[in-house]
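Supplementary Methods S3. Complex input for the cytidine-5'-monophosphate-bound model.
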Amino acid sequence: MFEPRPIIALDFPDMASVKRFLSHFPSDEKLYLKVGMELFYACGPEIVTYLKEQGHSVFLDLKLHDIPNTVESAMRVLAKLKVDMINVHAAGGVEMMRAARRGFGHEGILIAVTQLTSTTEKAMQADQNIQTSLVDSVQHYAQKTAEADLDGVVCSAQEVAVIKEATTAGFLCLTPGIRPKGSSVGDQKRVMSPQEARAIGSNFIVVGRPIIQAEDPLGAYHAIKTAWNA
Ligand code: C5P
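Predicted complex, serialized as structure tokens:
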């Protein structure tokens, strides 16, 4: 059976660093890789083409947020890259998310960011003037995401249960902020181990520094993959 793979965040500034990192892996090890704004803006669409040519799966983490027409057109262009997963900000609204779906189609997974995990409740209330709890806001955005026919959301692992409750069990939750037991937390505020994330129903985990900054990236990846599948 196909084993679920942790998604590795390729938080690198250029292609050379990506190639150096990937050289730690045997060529038949097919990975699920996250390309974020830094790498995409530095390298352009060629980075996605390159990774897909190597047989890897790609989550393009560009968090689109604009008027529906612009998001639809952008998604139509990005869909041509055959990415496996892509995302938008739920704050763009249901109409924008429906436009994203029209542009991207149904070939890959389309998810939305609810509240960024860097946003505290206090900051949300002060900056966005949303006078509810953070969890209520996350739940609300998850419901709007489901209403717009998207596949799921990016969320903190702590929010998975309330999101599934507000939507359906099949609604996907992708969770960053994952740390193997005993490893360095970095700037992530609330972390969970791969085993814990699995137990609370997370569908995908995103792991960056514990793998890309490891002395032995291949070993770190396999340890996290094993824990995730335990
Ligand atoms: O190094 P680390 O494992 O913390 O990396 C997590 C990755 O997930 C980074 O690329 C970060 O930008 C991303 N991310 C996150 N929290 C979110 C959305 C994305 O940490 N809410």
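The mean pLDDT is 95. The two ends are 14 Å apart (CA to CA).
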